[in-house]
Amino acid sequence: MLCDSCKERDAVVQVTQVTDPPVRQLNLCEKCAAERGIETHVTMPKQPLADFIQAVQQKQLLAGSESWRCTFCNSTLRDFRNTSRLGCAYCYGAFEVKIRDLLRGVHGTSKHQGKRYHPPAQVVEEGASVATELRTRLRRAVEQEQFEEAAKLRDQLKVME
Amino acid sequence: MTLDLSLLPDGGVNWLDASGDHSGIVLSTRVRLARNLEGFAFPGRARDGERLRILARVREAVEGSPHLRRNLLVRVDELGSEDRLLLHERHLISKELAGLDTQHPVRSGAAVFLGDGIGVMVNEEDHLRLQTLRSGFNLADAFADMQRIDEELGERIPFAFHEEFGFLTSCPTNTGTGLRASALIHLPGLVLTKEINKTLAGLQQIGFTYRGLYGEGSEVVGNFFQISNQTTLGRSEEEIIDKLLQVLSTVIAREEEARRVLLRDAGYIIEDKLWRAYGTLRYARSLTFDEAMNFLSGVRLAVGLKLITGLSVYTLNKLLIFSQAAHLSHAEGRLLSESEANLARARYVRQALAAEVGM
Asked: Are B199 and B181 in contact, with CB atoms under 8 Å apart?
């Protein structure tokens, strides 16, 4: 079907004019539709959040700090830039200054106003806490193939036992 | 492991029953919370063994939780890709948990505890993604359900929480409350009157956003929009819910107004368009998914405008879910090619409509 306006191109959109009676139906091509300010499809507006994160990640957020490393999960700010995801909850402490800026940019603030939370008390055997902690770290180091760290931890545990 | 959805009440699709408020326009209301366990790397960083330990901890907590203990554990990591897609099509698990995203293949320890309108996804982007789902427009109940399960899990397993930043999540866009509340809303009136882009742009200016039928990263099909809060930090959970309630009420009122305008000023054209959509669904022999969604959108609007009677919104809701590729394959008991699925879809839609309104 040809466009009712230019009679040259194929019509891609059917417009029902309801503003000035009588109601009319027009078949328009993309160009003539655009000239009348009619979009031929629902446009996905840009994702401001994603754009923002990308901009921040590429510029000021990481300037000079790409090699900062979280001691718990061993991920760096560079990893964050590449994946948009942090490695663990401790990354928030390790990269605190940078994360605060990022949160302010994304949410307009870094201050949580919602529910306060107190984790349940963990049952810890008396006197066992240091050894337990060391064993947890040792397990983690082995899982992450950080063998130097693992060797150190094993030595510390041996001393304790 | 094979998936037996018959173990779930109504196959996990109670939310389709159109029992909630404004169910002609709002398909469903969803609230989700992102939570992480203290002392473990986030799922994307954790090792296989660590994710399995996370699952074990969550399982223990779920079994002790009065509102979750009857939920069915589905080990997503042990399912084949067809079953994972089926759960995703049913809106019970996210694309990431299902491992359908090429960037994120299915992870060991990926699981979901499914119940009636309540799901707990484990080892998704965060250790826990809690979600509650209600039929129609019902933010209050979806949020109340969520508060209960958050409370019950949070007193059994320690969540990662920071005094200043709030609940800590893998992506900083969810930090703080970890709360994303949304409604899946059908807006053909605003699309046909060309008001939709203005409405959506307005939403974004006040901190809300929209996505397609399957949430993040999905396309808008069949005039279905998932409208949700964009930011999760700096406002309390109640404020976020209240604000979304206001925003959605406004969008619903605008949609109703647009429908009135269409009917008043372009009655016969609209009527013709919608009956054509119905005619196609009643008699077509092959339908692509997008075609089916678009015609179903027309029929849904016709039912809303009372042009077509005798067809329930529940049936239309079920058609949205059960005419998807994995559901058609599941019903046929074998994997269908695309063209076979188009034939099966047209047949299924014809039969469902004939059963409801007669031949």
From this structure: no
What CA–CA distance (Å, rounded) separates B359 from B351?
9
Best of B165, B192, B210 to substitute, by most chain A Cβ atoms within 10 angstroms, is B165
Continuous segment of H or E residues that includes residue B289: helix B289-304
Cα B230–Cα B236–Cα B242 angle in degrees, nearest 5: 70
Residue A9: both structure tokens together: 């191109």
Q: What is d(CA B191, CA A58) in angstroms, rounded to the nearest whole number?
A: 37
Asked if A16 contacts A23 with a C-beta cutoff of 8 angstroms, the reply is yes
- Other beta carbons within 10 Å of A65: 13
Q: What is the pLDDT of residues B113-165, one digit of tens each?
A: 999 889 999 999 999 999 999 999 999 999 999 999 999 999 999 999 999 99
CA distance B45 to A86: 8
DSSP class per residue in A66-110: TT-B-TTT--BHHHHHHHS--SBTTHHHHTHHHHHHHHHHHHS-S
Instruction: State the pTM of this model.
Output: 0.81
Whole-number Å distance between alpha carbons of A114 and B233: 8
Best to test chain B binding among A70, A86, A116, A122 (most B CBs inside 10 Å): A86
